[in-house]
Write a structure and sequence with these properties.
Elements: H1 2-20, E1 49-59, E2 62-71, E3 77-87, E4 99-105, E5 110-117, E6 125-131, E7 140-142
Parallel strand pairs: 1-7
Antiparallel strand pairs: 1-2, 2-5, 3-4, 3-6
């Protein structure tokens, strides 16, 4: 009787192992690599605007950034959001100090902007950014004289 029980137990174990043991033909496909291969990396976008100049000054009203940009495409671009992003150093943003202006630009047209932010001693650097009506960045080149 014990021998029959051992045979039944052995056959049951073999069947269960055969059914549930992963085989090489039923393995899921390998996961994609975590990094994008260099060949598949996105290409840099062609600049659509040129940042021509910027200057800043501090007054009783705050810090004012003035500048000019130009539409360097053959198409009208707009609405364009010009943003001044302030930083406490060259890496740490001060998001509450951002200021924006809205513009449309015909092909070849130059536009001036003046944006004033409340003064804060932590503000030591800024960056100009251009965005479209959906909030996507508009690529630009920096044509300011160094």
């Amino acid at each position: 009787m014990k021998r029959i029980l051992w045979v039944i137990l052995g056959i049951t174990g073999f069947v269960l192992l055969t059914l549930f043991w992963p085989s090489t033909t039923t393995q899921p496909p390998a996961a994609p690599p975590l990094s994008v291969p260099a060949a598949a990396a996105p290409k840099p976008q062609t600049p659509r605007l040129a940042l021509l100049s910027t200057s800043d000054r501090t007054s009783a009203r705050g810090v004012t950034v003035e500048g000019k940009f130009k539409n360097i495409t053959g198409d009208r671009i707009g609405p364009i959001t010009v943003r001044v992003l302030w930083f406490a150093n060259h890496e740490m943003p001060l998001g509450t100090r951002n200021r924006e202006g809205y513009f449309d630009a015909a092909p070849g047209e130059e536009k001036s902007f003046t944006l004033t932010s409340p003064s804060d001693p932590a503000m030591v650097a800024y960056r100009i950014e251009f965005r479209d009506e959906r909030g996507r960045e508009i690529p630009h080149r920096d044509d300011r004289s160094k």
